Amino acid sequence: MEVTIQEIIMDLFTVNNLLAMMAGVLGGIIIGALPGLTANMGVALLIPITFGMDPVAGLLMLMAVYTSAIYGGSISAILLHTPGTSASAATAIDGYELTMQGKSGLAIRIATVSSVIGGFISGIFLLTLTPPLSLISLKFGPPEYFLVAIFGLTTIGSISTGSINKGLISGALGLLISTVGMELNSGFPRFTFGLVDLQSGVSFVPAMIGLFSLSQVMFMVEKTHKESGIVTNAISDWRYLPRWNELKSIKTTILRSSLIGVLVGILPGAGGDIASWVSYNEAKRFSKKPELFGKGAVEGVAASEAANNAVTGGSLIPLLTLGIPGSATAAVLLGGLMIQGLVPGRELFTRYGEITYTVILGFILANVVMGVVGMLAARFMSNITMVSNKILAPLVVILCIVGSFALGNNFFDVWVMIIFGLLGYIMRKTGFHPAPVVLGLILGPMTEKGFRQSLSLSNGDLFSYFFTRPLSIVLIVLIVFALAWPIFFHKKKA
Amino acid sequence: MKRLRADIIFTIVLMLTAILLYLESNKFPKGADVFPKLMVGVILVLSVYEIIKHFASNKREEVGESGKKDWQEKYSPLIIFIFCIVLALLIKFLGFFTSITLFMAWTLWYLGMRKITSYIFSILGINLFIYFLFVMQLQVPLPRGILF
Fold this sequence. Notes:
- The complex is a heterodimer.
- Chain A is an all-alpha fold.
- Chain A contains 20 helices and two strands.
- Chain A has helices at 5-12, 15-33, 39-51, 55-80, 89-100, 104-134, 142-161, 164-177, 204-224, 244-248, 251-266, 272-286, 298-322, 328-339, 353-384, 389-408, 412-429, 435-457, 462-466, 470-493, and strands at 181-182, 189-190.
- In chain A, strands 1-2 form a two-stranded antiparallel sheet.
- The relative contact order of chain A is 0.19.
- Chain B is an all-alpha fold.
- Chain B starts with a strand and ends in an 11-residue tail after the last helix.
- In chain B, strands 1-2 form a two-stranded antiparallel ribbon.
- In chain B, 71% of the residues lie in helices and 3% in strands.
- The longest helix of chain B has 24 residues, at 34-57.
- Chains A and B meet through α8, α9, α16, α17 and α18 of A and α1, α2, α3, α4 and α5 of B.
């Protein structure tokens, strides 16, 4: 179906969609600014709310939360020296130094402009790269669908956890959990242990809320007893817009970091934290005054913030085209797409083109809106960063419960969420990241279908079958590369 | 004193669970058991590798005085988890809104919040937020109990 630009613009600029975007931007900045709350957690908690919404409005809200939470993380990084999200850790170094020098307003202005430009550029890449890349998915048969899922799990598993083996174990665990429920061919209930509620499988949204949100609350409460009143730093040199001379010195840094961010985002599994550290180091290497880094260099803030926001659009490129998330939050977003009945691949750009292009254009607009809201609200956000975790922890628990229940009006989902909350906490405590479990759960049915169809098409000789298909060979090479790269990378670092 | 690292204990528990699931998958009809068995196999092989790696490196957790956490830091996550279970059970009997009000109050108290205004604003705020968003807007039939 041909979609015209006029139709997309008409779709985007409806009151509902703009309100959803605004709510997502504001909610995302608040979630990001609050140390303890993460972008993953925010997106996971919002998915049940978006379920009842129009797909465009729902997805716009989720994407706006994603990009704005990454930006929001810079506010607490600058004012409190506590990154709101891990992606803002590099921002805290120079951002907080600037605050100590009485230049917190300058740091926030630079962070805002850099985040907007980084996010905007990544949105342009998303808009231009995804339609041609999605053509690849047309050439996919059962073996490729199986291999692409394995590739996604391998990369997100190995890069997000820092331990290839633990990442792979988590991914396999997710795939194993996805087999719970009625088997489609035989109608046999697998691993249900007599529970009728499990016959339709483990719902991935409550599982996701448990793994990311409830487990995060359990982490938050570890330190709450020792928490004394949080004192934030006032913004003394406040201005709504940056001066031209402030921007002139960092324009190259922003552009370079945005490109790094997009590239890192496209790499499955490598999230905003990796991009911001790489860009920070590159900015230092190219700087005329590298000695200022760590002592309040505006280039340091610009590099980190442009890169981590550029990751957001970049990570959506492999997600929308192949179903491989570029970051842990993108893995959660995949859940948001799936509950709307949207499956990544070519169909997103043909049959559902109107929805997809509207959401992508909305994502670009959301980055601009984020800048406007950020500059208007940053002064007040400094007060929000003072909200105690003692209050946030029970509030998030209640939102986890209501969110899990709301999706299917089924109380069993609340128990699923609670069990996965404990699993997520134990996994994170022991160095196993929950993102591969979520991805395994979501991609599990497609992976099993691809595997079983390949098995039957190959007449039992799976190995020869895979190696006679060019696309399969490419995917196998990518899987091997994804497995070998971290080993090579760690050795080089050592 | 040295002890096994928590990740190895988790890996062993995972292996045992995987073995139990393998035995369970023997009851599945032909074809339906292939993928679960494959995943169980992958988990077992990778877990064995993780354990061998651990013992080969001989890195065990040292439990020194400095490494000891206070009981609140150690047990608060578990206590909050139990609170969640109690909340889920209470919802069935008392209804959603009464239960979350009680939950907020006792959790705030447990976490050391003593400001009465924090209780009022957070309890009122979350009740109103959920009522307007989930009940009014999204039409979610939240569980009712003996009260309302």
